[in-house]
TrEMBL record:
InterPro entries: AAA+_ATPase, ABC_Ni/Peptide_Import, ABC_transporter-like_ATP-bd, ABC_transporter-like_CS, Oligopep_ABC_C, P-loop_NTPase. Belongs to the ABC transporter superfamily. Pfam families: ABC_tran, oligo_HPY. This is Dipeptide/oligopeptide/nickel ABC transporter ATP-binding protein. The lineage of its organism: Bacteria, Bacillati, Actinomycetota, Coriobacteriia, Coriobacteriales. SMART domains: AAA. Keywords: ATP-binding, Cell membrane, Membrane, Nucleotide-binding, Transport. It comes from the Bacteria. GO terms for cellular component: plasma membrane. It comes from Granulimonas faecalis. The gene is appD. It is a peripheral membrane protein. It is found in: Cell membrane.
């Protein structure tokens, strides 16, 4: 799925972002809750990585950890590294991290109405980010750049929208303002946390097309957090499947849909409605994602897995290549030599 633009701008080059063994714990009155466990993946410029899974799987917490926006307390990164162009973001002090946040790495949140300042003009909110990261920039120049960004995201009557408050705009237009804010400083990486939540289908398609066009034109790496497997099949180059705070599968998008390895990934794909299955009952994975204070032993998916054996209930599987393919990894005993002994 990689484009010529990606090749020109380094989509196949060295990693832009490397997450290595990330562990995040919530320290609560009920005890220590491990919400992210030993998470590792990488991203390159010009590529789209989709992070998928049910609600409560740790997708948003992963994004907030990269941006250093996890709620402190109770959350704390207790292990691992987040390397951005070789710099470990976990070790940066707050003032240094602010230089990266919004400038090198930007984020589009789920609900723009809760992310935009309701008493500040939309254009001024875009310009504010430019001025924070470019102290020498004149206000008039920042306003002009903000207006250009409103045009770039395809909003009609940009001059009018520049002088509008968020409540005067539709949900789709507010989401475009969020995208304009995120792209204003030309970041190397954009995190989209379910950017089409609460939007109608037509506007969803327009917003996703805008994000993909931006990726192709600028070479920005995109992390797309979603539960919509249809969106993943259209936009993603790579897919990270998460379950209860752990990675269970990581591979190319085309490979995931053709040959899903983990039973959880298989269940997610089987849950996609099909035009060929008209009248049939829609498949749903049985059970629910476990609470963080009630995680099962062994493989976390074993209570819901149709293939679970004793070894799945006793031991946590490693994250291993599928048939020797380093570009397709899975956390499942089925793909190891110990599967037959696990009955």
């Amino acid at each position: 799925m990689a484009s010529d633009t990606q090749d020109r701008q380094g989509g196949q080059g060295g990693p832009l972002l490397e997450v290595d063994g990330l562990c995040v714990t919530l320290f609560t009155d009920a005890g220590e809750l491990r919400c992210i466990q030993d998470l590792s993946f990488s991203m390159r410029r010009g590529e789209t990585l989709a992070v998928v899974g049910e609600s409560g799987c740790g997708k948003s917490m992963t994004a907030l950890s990269i941006m250093d926006l996890i709620p402190k307390p109770p959350a704390k990164i207790v292990g691992g590294r987040i390397l951005f162009e070789g710099t470990d973001l976990v070790q940066l002090p707050d003032d240094r991290m602010r230089d990266y946040r919004g400038n090198e790495i930007s984020m589009i949140f789920q609900e723009p109405m809760t992310s935009l300042n309701p008493v500040m003009l939309c254009g001024k909110q875009i310009a504010e980010g430019l001025l924070v990261h470019n102290p020498d920039m004149a206000k008039a120049e920042a306003d002009a750049k903000a207006l250009d960004m409103i045009r770039f995201v395809g909003i009609p009557a940009p001059e009018k929208v520049f002088k509008s408050y968020p409540f005067e705009l539709s949900g789709g237009m507010r989401q475009r303002i969020m995208i304009a804010m995120a792209l204003a400083c030309e970041p190397a990486m954009l995190i989209c946390d379910e950017p089409t939540t609460a939007l109608d289908v037509t506007i969803q398609a327009q917003v996703l097309q805008l994000i993909d066009r931006m990726r192709q034109e600028t070479g920005t790496a995109v992390m797309l957090i979603t539960h919509d497997m249809g969106v993943v099949s259209e936009m993603a180059d790579w897919v990270l499947v998460m379950y209860a705070g752990r990675q269970v599968e990581y591979t190319r998008a085309s490979e995931l849909f053709a040959h899903p390895a983990h039973p959880y990934a298989q269940g997610l794909i089987d849950s996609i409605p099909s035009m060929d299955a008209s009248g049939e009952r829609l498949y749903a994975i049985p059970g629910n994602v476990p609470m963080l204070n009630e995680l099962p032993s062994g493989c976390l998916f074993n209570p819901r897995c149709p293939y679970a054996r004793d070894i799945c209930r006793r031991e946590v599987p490693g994250f291993t290549p599928v048939d020797g393919d380093e570009g397709h990894r899975v956390a499942c005993w089925k793909y190891t030599d110990r599967w037959e002994e696990g009955r």
